[in-house]
Every structure is written in structure tokens, then in C-alpha cells.
Amino acid sequence: xxxxxxxxxxNWWMPFSDNRYFKANPRLLAAAKDMHYTTADGRRVLDGxxxxxxxxxxxxxxxxxxxxxxxxxxxxxxxxxxLGHPLAFQLAARVAGIMPDGLDRVFFTNSGSESVDTAxxxxxxxxxxxxxxxxxxxxxxxxxxxxxxFGGISVGGIVTNRRAxxxxxxxxxxxxxxxxxARNAFSRGQPAxxxxxxxxxxxxxxxxxxxTIAAVIVEPLAGSTGVLVPxxxxxxxxxxxxxxxxxxxxxxxxxxxCGRLGAATAAERxxxxxxxxxxxxxxxxxxxxxxxxxxxxxxxxxxxDAPGDAPGIELFHGYTYSAxxxxxxxxxxxxxxxxxxxxFARARGLEDVWADALHxxxxxxxxxxxxxxxxxxxxxxxxxxxxxxxxxxxxxxxMFDAGLLIRVTGDIxxxxxxxxxxxxxxxxxxxxxxxxxxxLA
Length: 441
Ligand SMILES: Cc1ncc(COP(=O)(O)O)c(C=O)c1O
Known about the structure:
Its EC number is 2.6.1.18. The chain is an alpha/beta fold.
């Protein structure tokens, strides 16, 4: 049953939106199936962004729908504080099964933001449990996006997401970002230059002392800021430096996890294993909100088996909806579907076709960089001198009206289609974009 357009748009204060513009020019999505949305006025829109980087298996997939329906009728909700339900343990085992070796303890949340704040709190609790409670500093990275909780915006580095919200956490520092168009523009896959930027961590460590730093958190591939692929050797250097100084490394894989980069995780794809991995989005194919933090055994055990503690709650943290029964059902069905259709391998197999198609846009008006990895691409446009971001908004709107959903951050287009996209649909996406770019002022 497709919803009809409402008469009154005033009550809903929309997230991350230009509310005034939207309500004057509404764009409403009413239904979705596989690779397409249907708008409230009945137009089909090709989904070039898997919703918000999350519908990795495509929309309205029958096994997931069925699992949610059946679960709602069997056990809608079960408290998970001091109680459990079978699906939560099953899903935790399934998640552990696709994480890198050793990251087999799984804490459930309801979003990427909650996963990030959970991971940061686990890092702090870990050091306290080990008798090093002075390790409280957290290191993020410029241009990083780690959701919208106070922890996430503090370690994050997107200026607009922080400006209005006060000082945030204290004791936070940031690595430099890795965007280097002068040396890396139009890289296919990992850019060649920039591994040395990881060495800046040594300077931060020298400044504060390793024994004050709890964790470093980065997106292995930065998504929301406009697709920054890690330079060759960069993540390896970060891992080596954090390991050398005994600092925990957290990968925020809310976007890069669950197949987006052609493997279960970026950690697997790049061959670099952190201590904690944040997940969300693709975990349930976005059919029910859910996030998770995969935690290495030694971190978990240090907290849960801390010597000397009286028996009782080990970590005073959790959400009413942690391991929600519907989310667990959706998660298990989603991981089954990824496996039965081999979607992670499929994404990997499409990578060259994807890269060839996208890099074919080089030379079109305003295009100053194209970057890609897995089934992700960023197309950077030159900003209008008087109005940065306006060109991005214009192309977003014109593409939507032309039947293609893209995502823009400022003047950077980000593409991340469902992993079921066909080669024809890749061609269709790129043709429409080419047309749009030719007409863009
Ligand atoms: C890397 C990363 N971390 C965290 C988040 C926040 O996730 P959510 O919007 O589910 O809170 C996002 C969302 O895009 C993300 O890309």
C-alpha cells in the first residue's frame, strides 16, 4: 500500500535537511523494490546510494520482509538487561563469523552513532579495568564522520556538525585528513600518496604521552565527507603505531562494513585488523535500525573478567533496544541473503566495471576528481566561487528529477548503490550523471 502525500508537512522537523526548502519543494518516496524507489507521484528513481549507504541487498527483499513479519508475530520485544532471547545470540555468532579473527564479542546498538559512542566508552572502560584509568584521550581525524552523539561529533572532524553544539568531549585530538587532490586526483582504487600522514599520530603521541591516550578512531574509507579512500600503506602505518604504543584502534565501518568494499569489512579488504569495529547500516539491510560493535576478545575479557571486581554488571552501558528482536531477525535474514547471493564477492567482481564507468566522467564540466573503491565512488566538482555547495545541491535535485538518487556532500557526489546493481544499471547511472553534468551551470 503506497502512502499518499500528506497535506501538512510542518510538524516533522527533518534531520540533516534544509527544512524550509524541502517543505516548499517536497520530494517524497512512497515505495521501494530492489534497485528502485517509487515517488509519491509514481515516478521510479534508480537508487544510486543504497538509501543512505545501507540497503546493500536492495530494497524490499522477500526473505528479510518475511523474517521481520514472522518475528513481530512471535516475540515483538524482549528486555536484554539481565535477560536474553535466542536470536540475539545467534546474530552475535553470525556477526562474529564475518569479523576478522579475534573480534568475536559483539555489543548491539541501534545506529551508527550509538555504535561509535559505545566503542569509545568500551575503550575508556578497558583502560580503567586494566588499572590505567588515566588513558582517556581519544584521537579522531579531520573530516571524519562518526555520527551525531557527543562522542561521535567530538572525535569527528566535519566542522558543520560541531559548530552549534559547544565544546564536546575534552581531551580529543585529530589526525590530518588524507584528501590530497594535488597528488592523488583521479586515482583508481587506493591513492598512491599519503601513507606518511599516519605518522602524524607520532607527533600527537609525543605531545600528550601514549599513556594518556585510550584509542584512535577512523573510518578506514571516509564516506560522508565525500569518499576518501585510504592511501596505500596508510592504515597499516596507523595500526603499527597504535600497536607500538599500546593504543586501541577503532575502525568505524558503519559504511565500509557489510560488503560495501567487496568484503565483509574494510579490515578484511585492506588486511588491517583493529581492536574494535563499529557496524550499522548494512547489518540489517536497513530494514530495522540496528548497529553493533565487534570487540576483540582481549578488550572484552579485560572488562568482563576484570580481576578483583565483585560479581555484578561489568559494563554500565546498553540501550532499551539493544538486540531488538525484530532487528535480530532482520540481521540474520540479511546475513543469510548476503551469503546465499554472494553479494560481497559480487561487489568485488563489479569493481573494475564500476571504476571504468565512473572514470569515464573525467573531462566533463566541473569534474575535478573521481575516486573509487569497492562499490563506492566520489566525484568532486569545482565549487562556484560565490556559493560553495550550490552546484552539489543543483545536481542532486536535477538528478532526482531525472530519476536517479545520488548523494552530495558540499560539491562532492557520493555513489554507493546496492550490491545487486547490474552492469546495465551502472551504465544507466553514469549516462544520466553525464547528461546532468553537461547541463549543470
Ligand atoms: C562512518 C559512520 N559512522 C557513524 C555514522 C552514524 O550512523 P547513524 O546515522 O546510524 O547514527 C555514519 C552514518 O552515515 C557513518 O557513515
